[in-house]
Specification:
Elements lengths: L35 H14 L12 H8 L3 H13 L3 E4 L3 E4 L10 H5 L8 H23 L8 H12 L5 H17 L4 H4 L2 H14 L7 H12 L3 H16 L3
Antiparallel strand pairs: 1-2
Helix pairs in contact: 1-3, 5-9, 5-11, 6-7, 6-10, 7-9, 10-11
Length: about 250
C-alpha cells in the first residue's frame, strides 16, 4: 500500500496570497563553501582562535587531520586553501601548514570574527577593529536610510523591539532582535555597500552581548532610531546610532 501523501500545510508559503511567517533575522549565510568543507573550516578556525593551534604552530599532517576530523584529504585541502586565502594559514612544502602571525589575518573577515568568543587570546583586538570600522559605517547607513524604511517591514521591527523589551528572552534571541533592526537599516538604502556589512554587524552585536555583564536595556534606543529614521530626523537618528555604538565602544 503506498504511503500517504504528505500534508500540504508545510507548503502554505507557496500558495498565492500567502505570506511567510515573520521571524527575527539571523546572521547572513557565509560565502564559504557548504557541507563538509565549511564544517572543517569552522572547526579549524575555532581551534586557531581558542589557541589549540596557536600562532606559529604547525598543523598536524593531512592524514592525521583526516583521521581526527573524519573527512577526506580533499576536504582538508579545500578547507586549508580557504583559510590560507583569509590569511590565517600558510603552507610550505617542507614545513607543512603553519598558523600565520596576526598581522597577516584579515581581521575584518566576518568568518574570522565568528570563530572568536569571549576569552580567546585575540578577541579584544578583533573586537576593537570591528567596532572602529562599524562606528564609521553604521552612522552613514543610518543617514542613507532616512525616510526609506519600508512600511511593510514594520511588523518585523515591532517583533524585534518586543523581544528586546522581554526580560525572558535569552541572549541569542536578543542578539537576533538587535541584528534584525540593524539589518532593516542596512537594507533600507538598497545599496550593496551597506548590505555587505550585515554579517560584521551581527558579529559586533554578538561580541557586545558576550562582554556586557549584565546585558543593558536597549529597546528604547532602538525604538528611537527607527522612529527618527522613519521621520527623516537626521540629527536625532545619528545621536541614537552613536549612543547604541557607545555600548560596544565602552567595552573595549
Amino acid at each position: 500500500m503506498p504511503n500517504a501523501a504528505p500534508s500540504l500545510d508545510a507548503y502554505k508559503h507557496l500558495r498565492r496570497g500567502a505570506s511567510p511567517a515573520v521571524t527575527l533575522l539571523t546572521r547572513p549565510e557565509s560565502a564559504i563553501a557548504n557541507g563538509a568543507v565549511s564544517d572543517v573550516i569552522d572547526w579549524l578556525g575555532r581551534a586557531v582562535a581558542s589557541g589549540h593551534f596557536p600562532i606559529g604552530a604547525t598543523l598536524p599532517m593531512e592524514n592525521q587531520l583526516e583521521e581526527q576530523v573524519g573527512v577526506s584529504r580533499t576536504v582538508i585541502r579545500e578547507a586549508v586553501k580557504v583559510m590560507t586565502a583569509k590569511g590565517v594559514l600558510k603552507t610550505a612544502r617542507r614545513y607543512g601548514t603553519v598558523v600565520n602571525p596576526l598581522d597577516d589575518w584579515n581581521l575584518l573577515d566576518a568568518d574570522i570574527v565568528s570563530w572568536h568568543k569571549k576569552g580567546d587570546a585575540q578577541v579584544i583586538l578583533i573586537f576593537r577593529e570591528l567596532v572602529e570600522l562599524l562606528s564609521i559605517m553604521l552612522p552613514q547607513a543610518v543617514a542613507a536610510a532616512l525616510g526609506r524604511l519600508p512600511s511593510e517591514r514594520g511588523t518585523l521591527a515591532e517583533m524585534a523591539i518586543g523581544a528586546l523589551q522581554s526580560v525572558e528572552e535569552d541572549r541569542q534571541q536578543r542578539v537576533q532582535a538587535e541584528f534584525t533592526i540593524w539589518a532593516l537599516i542596512l537594507e533600507a538604502p538598497q545599496s550593496n555597500m551597506f548590505a555587505q556589512f550585515k554579517a560584521l554587524t551581527y558579529e559586533m552585536i554578538r561580541l557586545t552581548q558576550e562582554f556586557e555583564e549584565p546585558m543593558s536595556r536597549s529597546d528604547a534606543l532602538y525604538s528611537d532610531i527607527l522612529h527618527y529614521i522613519g521621520s527623516s530626523k537626521g540629527d536625532e537618528a545619528n545621536l541614537a546610532c552613536r549612543l547604541l555604538l557607545a555600548r560596544s565602544k565602552n567595552l573595549i
